[in-house]
Amino acid sequence: MTSVEQVQKQQDRTSSQEAYYTLSYDETIAKLDSSRNGLTEAEAAARLERYGKNVLQEAKRKSIIAKLIAQFKDVMIIILLVAALISGILGELTDAIIILVVVVLNAVLGVLQENKAEQALDALKQMSSPNARVIRGGKTIEVKAEDLVPGDVVVLEAGNVVPADIRLIESASLKIEEAALTGESVPVEKDTAPLDKPDVVIGDRKNMAYMSSSVTYGRGVGIVTGTAENTEVGKIASFISQEDEDITPLQKKLNELGKYFTIIIIVVAVIIFGVGMFQGRAWLEMLLVSISLAVAAIPEGLPAIVTIILALGVQRMAKRKSIIRKLPAVETLGSTEIICSDKTGTLTQNKMTVKQVYVNSGLQDEQTDLSTISGSDILLQVMTLCNDTKMTETDTDAGNAGSSDHSGKKGINYIGDPTETALVEFALHRNFDKREGEEQFPRRAELPFDSDRKLMTTVHEMPPTEGNKVFRVMTKGAPDVLLERCSRIHIDNQTVDMSEEHRRNIEAANKTMAQKALRVLALAYSDKPELPHSMEPNEVEANLTFIGLVGMIDPPREEVKEAVRICKEAGIRPIMITGDHRDTAAAIAKELDIIQDESGVLTGRELNELDEPTFMSKVTQYSVYARVSPEHKVRIVQAWKKHGKVVAMTGDGVNDAPALKASDIGIGMGITGTDVSKGVSDMVLADDNFSTIVVAVEEGRKVYSNIRKTIQFLLSANLGEVVTLFIATLLNWKILFPIHILWINLVTDTLPALALGLEKAEQDIMKQPPRSSETSVFAGGVGTSIIYQGLLEAALTLLTYWWGHTHYDEAVAVTMAFATLGLIQLTHVFNVRSNTKSIFTIGVFSNRYLNWAALAAGVLVLVVIWVPYMNELFSVVPLNSEQWLIVVAAAFSIVPIVEIVKLFIRMGSRNKADY
C-alpha cells in the first residue's frame, strides 16, 4: 500500500468515526457529499473503488504447516522430542515411538481446535443483508448490499436487515431490533432528530441504524455513514480476527513443569556423569548412563494423559448441557474467579412478560385471578385487540427465543413485537384468545403506533346493544400521554368522570411500577354509536375512558438466583454487563442478589469519563454495567484480568463477541446465541441456562484436581525411579535394566493414571475459593508429597534389593526390586486420591475404575515374572513364597506410612483452626 493510499485509508476511517448522530440532516448530507436524491451511478462506482466492497474482511489465516509448527513450541513437547531422539540413539525404539505418538496426537488435537476466529467471521458475513434498496440519481433501485458505499441513500422497511451503518433522515413508526448488537431486549423506536451529546452509547443513538440489526416495524430512509470494517459490526469483526496469544492456567502450569524438569534432568545427568568420571569409569559408559537416567525422569505419558482426562471431562460436561469447543477450557473453568454475564437472554428469559397490572384502582401482580376484578375483561380486550401480534399453530413446544417469536404454551407461536406479544400471551393465560376476540370483535379501522404520538389505536365492531351498533375505540401507549386524553375512568363496573384523586392514584401506580424497572403501558377505550368518519388522532383519541396500566419486564430466569448464590459461595463474583438501561439492569441485579443497592451500578457514559488508572482502582466496586458498548465490555474484562483474575464471559449477541474472545473463557448460548458469539466461545451452553455454568465450574475444578493427582502420582513414581537408579549407580549396583523402567512406566503410568482422572469431586469442592491463576501446580502440599513419596518409593525398592542381594543371588535381587517398584506404584496410586483425607474415609475401593486399572496393571507386572518366555526377555527369575512375601510387604508398607503423614497434616490443620 502506498503512502497516499495509507493516508486515504486513515481519512476514510476517521470519517466513519464521525459522530453523525449529532449532525442535522443537511450537515450529514454535506459531510458525506451526497444529496436527497442519492449518488449518481458514476459517483457510487468511484466510491466503491475507494472504500472497497461492503463485506467484512477475513482474518489472515494460517496454513496447516504454520499451525502444526506452533504446536511444537511448548517446553514439555520439546523435552519429549529430545527424549525420543535419545531413546532412539540408545536403541529403545519402543520408547521413542510411544513418545512420538504422544507428541503427534497433541499437535493434531491442537490444530483441530484452531478455527474460532475464522468461524466467527464467516458467521458475521452471513448476517449481512444480501440486497438493499437505494436511491441513486433520484430513482429507487435494488443493489447488492456489498456494493453500498458511504453517501448512498437507503430505504428501510419492516423485515429488512440493515445493510450498513446509516444515519436516518426519515422515520415513519420505525422500530429496529438491536438486541444482538446492544443487548437491549425490545426493538428501539427510531427518529431523525440530532442528539446533543457526542458520547452517546449505541443503544441511545435513536437516529442511527446499524449493520446486521433488523427492522421490525415501520419504514425509514437513511444515508450510509460506514461500510465493511468501518461499521460497528466491522469493528467487532476486526477485534475477533486478531490472534489470541493468551494461554490457559493449565498450559502455564505444564510449561512451568517443563522448566522444572529441564533443570532437574540437566542436574541429574551432570552429577551422574561427574561421579562416574571421578570413580574412573569410561566416559562413553557414563554418558549413556546419564542419558538413560534423564530419559527415565521424563513423564512422557503426562501430556497424553492430561489430554485424555480433559477429553473425559468434555464428555461428562456434554451430557450436562455444556459443550466444550477447546479442551483446556475445562480446566480454566475450575479457576474462574469472575463471571461477566450479559443480561438479556443469559440472566433473563429474553422475553417480555407482564408482571403487574393496575385495574379498578388496584395494583395486581401476575398471579392474581383477574376474573373477579371489575374492568378486567375490558382491560384484556384492549391489550389483546389493540395489538398487531399474530398467533399461529406450531408443532414445537417453544418458539425462537432469540427473536420476536415466542411461545406461550404448546402449539402456539407468537409473531410480532415482544411487548405486544407479552400482552397477548398474558391474556391467553387468562382465557382470552386473541384469535377468538378478533372474530367476535373485528377490527374496522386503526391508527398505527407513531413515535411522535406514542399511541396506537384500533376501532372494533362490538355486539349490538339493544339493537344499536357499538364501535369500541381501543388505545394503548405511554401513560403520561394517554392520561391527558382520558376524561373518564372505569371503576366498579361503571364509568365515572376522572378526578384529580384518580389521576394521582394512576400516577402513583405508574411510578411504583417504573421504580421496579417495569416498562409501563396505559390502556383506554371509548364506545361510539358509529364508525368514526375521520381517523384524525385528535378526534379519535380524545375523551377516552381509562381502564388500566400494564407493567412488563424481561424477567430473570427462575434458576439463576440459586446459581448466583452458589457462585458466591464458591468464591466466584458475578458481574452483569448489559446494553439495557440503568434502572432495568439494577432491578434485575437486585432480584438476583448480584448487588444490594445501586451504588454498584456504572453506566457506559460514566465509564467513558474514567481514565484507565482510575477505572483500574475502582473496577472492584461495581458489579453491574448498564448502557455499555462492545468496547466497554472488553475494557471491563481486561480490567479484571489486569487484577490477576481468571475471567469468564457469557453472552449471546454479536455485541458480546469481542468480550467473549478477550476473556479467559468465553461462554456462548447454544439456543439464543448468534453464530458469531458461539464461534468465538470456548464453551457453549446447550440449554442457555446460567446455572449450567455452575455445573461446568464444578467439573472444571474436579478435572484440575484430578490432573494434579495424576501429576503427583506420575512425578513421585518417576522420582522414585530416578533416585533408585541414582543411588544404585553411586553404589555400583545393577539394580534395574532399561527395559524394566520402560515396562513399569508403560504399565503403571497409563491405566492407573487415567483412572485417577475419573475420581469423584470432593464434597466441599464448590465451597472452596477458586485458586489463583498464579498458584503453582505444586502448591497445597503437592510438591512436598511428590518429594517425600518419591524418596519413600526409592528407599523401599533399594531396601528390597539389598535384602535380596545379601540373602539370595543377584538375579533374585533384581527381580525383587523390579516387582517391588512396580507394585509399590500400584498401591501408592490409592494414596494420592487425597493429600489430606484418609483413603479409609473416602473409601478404599470407591473408585471402581481405579480398582480395575490397578488389578490389570498388577497382572501385567507379575506376568513378566511368571511366564517363562517373558522372564527370560526381561532378565528376571521366578520368586518363592518368602521372596514374594517380602516384596508384597514392601509394596503395601507405603500405604500406612502415608496415612500416618496425612494424620499429622490433619492434626496440624485442626490446631491452626483452633488457634
Automatic annotation (TrEMBL):
Please give the biological process terms from Gene Ontology that the record holds: intracellular potassium ion homeostasis; intracellular sodium ion homeostasis; potassium ion import across plasma membrane; proton transmembrane transport; sodium ion export across plasma membrane
- RNA-binding as UniProt keyword: no
> Which InterPro entries does the record match to this protein?
ATPase_P-typ_cation-transptr_C, ATPase_P-typ_cation-transptr_N, ATPase_P-typ_cyto_dom_N, ATPase_P-typ_P_site, ATPase_P-typ_TM_dom_sf, ATPase_P-typ_transduc_dom_A_sf, ATPase_P-type_domA, Cation_transp_ATPase_P-type
Give the residues annotated as coiled coil.
none
**Keywords in UniProt for this one?**
ATP-binding, Calcium, Calcium transport, Cell membrane, Ion transport, Magnesium, Membrane, Metal-binding, Nucleotide-binding, Phosphoprotein, Translocase, Transmembrane, Transmembrane helix, Transport
Q: How does it sit in the membrane?
A: Multi-pass membrane protein
Q: Name one Pfam family in it.
A: Cation_ATPase
* Enzyme class per UniProt: translocase
TM stretches of this protein: 70-90, 96-112, 260-280, 286-312, 711-731, 737-756, 777-799, 811-830, 850-869, 884-905
Cite the EC number.
7.2.2.10
Q: Which reaction does it catalyse?
A: Ca(2+)(in) + ATP + H2O = Ca(2+)(out) + ADP + phosphate + H(+)
Instruction: List, for all copies, the residue spans of the domain called Cation-transporting P-type ATPase N-terminal.
Output: 19-92
Q: Name one GO cellular component term.
A: plasma membrane
Where is the protein situated, by its record's location annotation? Cell membrane
Q: Which CDD domains match?
A: P-type_ATPase_Ca_prok (cd02089)
Entry superkingdom: Bacteria
Recorded GO MF terms: ATP binding; ATP hydrolysis activity; metal ion binding; P-type calcium transporter activity; P-type sodium:potassium-exchanging transporter activity
- Specify where it is mainly localized: membrane
NCBIfam families assigned to the protein according to its UniProt record, in alphabetical order: ATPase-IIA1_Ca, ATPase_P-type
Q: Which family does it belong to?
A: Belongs to the cation transport ATPase (P-type) (TC 3.A.3) family. Type IIA subfamily.
Protein name, entry field:
P-type Ca(2+) transporter
Instruction: Give the organism's phylogenetic lineage.
Output: Bacteria, Bacillati, Bacillota, Bacilli, Bacillales
